[in-house]
Amino acid sequence: MKFEDLNLIAPILRTLKNKGYTAPTPIQQKAIPVILQGKDLLGCAQTGTGKTAAFAIPILQILHEKQTLGNWPPGIKTLVITPTRELAIQIDESFGAYGEGSRLRHTVVFGGVKQHAQVRKIRAGVDILVATPGRLLDLMNQGIVDLRHLKFFVLDEADRMLDMGFIHDIKKIVAKLPPRRQSLFFSATMPPDITTLANSLLTNPVRVEVSPVSSAAETVEQKMYHVAKANKKSLLTHMLKNENIPSALVFTRTKYGADKVARFIKNAGIHAEAIHGNKSQNARQMALKNFKNKSTKVLVATDIAARGIDIDELSHVINFEIPNEPEAYVHRIGRTGRAEKTGIALSFCDQDEKKHVKNIHKLLKKEIPVERRHPFSISPFDAVEKKKSGNQDRARRPQKKQIWHRRKG
Ligand code: AMP
């Protein structure tokens, strides 16, 4: 299928061509016609599938046509809510990119920064508003955001919204939306509480599903490294120095861990930065910019900070720690291999994390191949890590560990 088959208007087709998009992705093929027909949509798709364009393009087209016809009330006509600031900024940028040349005005609001500049932009007039829930609700309560003329409501990354505890904010926002609207609801996973939320927001939705979470990231080559906890940092620097890794997004479970790992990598002489919720908005944006323009080789991130980050040509995702929710693994590795590009996901697993790996295998319905050829390999895994303290001790003495490894293997 071509973009030309989707009834898109000439300026949008031109923009897509200029961006180098040759064909619509599956979610775009399925969602664009549904949205152009004015129907509600329940989209089951993860990031990396092209879902932002799948909703932004038809919304821009419909708004552009209404604007051209002069059928144009003042105020916000589209509201997109999404869980993180990074994602909100990216979605706003996408509206700017896909709507290039149109007269539609868009802006983004999120918490953690002063509201002054955001308020100024809203007061100047906005057609499309992208927001995180907390700040949006705040601005609505202050009477700054007026949604009376809303036509489109998009709820993005609904499962993550619930995980992050935004459900009450969302319910309060939805209660204030005009009932006559077109609603689009996107989630990577569809557990029962998400389905309940979707049912309360949507009217006769068309359900569109692409690459369900368990079959996700088939383009990503995955490898598991069994390694003692105390050796993970050494394995990471070994990999970064000796393997062909042009850029890596490294995941840790905690903010503290992200800082610690970034410091360690930097001390080893590799450009690295950390990104997480404790950093100021400016520091996060700067770190992301440096990573995107490749002046930083390694970005260390927590799940929430990295969720939805759109980095073209990211070659490697490294799970420094295995996430305890299997879905988070899929989201993590989905940062690479985006829009049909190939990528590599490496996971470092210590004894304590084996239970998490089991759950990931269950979700993936396959086992991640184990890579044993590395200097910190512990094999057979169980035998080595049984005596935890002894093992940690060994980890600090790599020479002895290697002797052990030779004897065993
Ligand atoms: P998303 O799932 O919206 O985060 O998009 C993932 C990536 O795919 C982004 O870098 C988009 O710019 C890119 N993308 C979206 N649609 C297409 C397309 N039809 N062809 C190529 N790349 C695309």
Word description of this protein:
With 409 residues, the protein is an alpha/beta fold. It has two domains: 3-209, P-loop containing nucleotide triphosphate hydrolases (Rossmann fold, 3-Layer(aba) Sandwich); 220-380, P-loop containing nucleotide triphosphate hydrolases (Rossmann fold), CATH 3.40.50. It is built from 18 helices and 13 strands. The strands form two sheets. It has a seven-stranded parallel sheet with strand order 3-4-2-5-6-1-7, sandwiched between helices. Mean pLDDT is 87; it is low at 382-409. Residues 21, 24-25, 28, 47-53, 310, 312, 338-339 line the site of adenosine monophosphate. The site of adenosine monophosphate has 15 residues, from helix 3.
Produce a short descriptive summary.
α2 (26-36) runs parallel beside α3, α3 packs across α4 and α14 crosses α15 (354-364). The protein has helices at 10-18, 26-36, 51-69, 85-98, 116-124, 133-141, 158-163, 167-175, 192-201, 232-242, 255-267, 281-292, 303-306, 326-333, 354-364, 381-385, 388-395, 398-408, and strands at residues 41-44, 78-81, 106-109, 128-131, 152-155, 182-187, 206-209, 220-226, 248-251, 272-275, 298-301, 316-319, 343-349.
